[in-house]
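User: Sequence recovery, please. Input:
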């Protein structure tokens, strides 16, 4: 019996795009065996930032996060695969790049808590909500 496939949203953040790390990040996911179902380069506007980070809008760290996330182009990616949410979260490492394990994307390339290269859905529920925001035409 084949394994159930799930989807996750991954955002390759403006710092990764600026630093020329898009190919490296995507290659790691592909080498792992995950499937890129959709990919789009765009700039997050303020309204989408508020929707995407709805749980954080009232928190003190949100204004600088919003400024960073809207500061330049990013790449939104739909990845799929067996337990893709957990697999991707393991691959990207701890939120704070200074504390992320070597071998993870953040551990190898990030040196910040905010500018940490990638965002990934943290649960099936958040993946469904985020995918609907970023790829509304994708059949979920």
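Assistant: Recovered sequence (140 residues):
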């Amino acid at each position: 019996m084949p394994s159930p496939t799930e989807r996750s949203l991954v955002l390759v953040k403006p710092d990764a795009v600026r630093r020329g790390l898009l190919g490296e990040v995507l290659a790691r996911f592909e080498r792992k065996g995950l499937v890129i179902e959709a990919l789009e380069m765009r700039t997050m506007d303020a309204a989408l930032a508020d929707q995407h980070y709805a749980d954080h809008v009232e928190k003190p760290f949100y204004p600088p996060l919003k400024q960073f996330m809207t500061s330049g182009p990013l790449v939104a990616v739909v990845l799929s695969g067996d337990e893709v949410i957990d697999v991707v979260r393991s691959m990207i490492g701890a939120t704070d790049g200074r504390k992320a394990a070597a071998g993870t994307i953040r551990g190898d390339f990030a040196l910040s808590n905010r500018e940490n290269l990638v965002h990934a859905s943290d649960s099936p529920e958040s993946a469904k909500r985020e995918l609907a925001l970023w790829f509304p035409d994708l059949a979920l």
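The chain has a mean pLDDT of 95.
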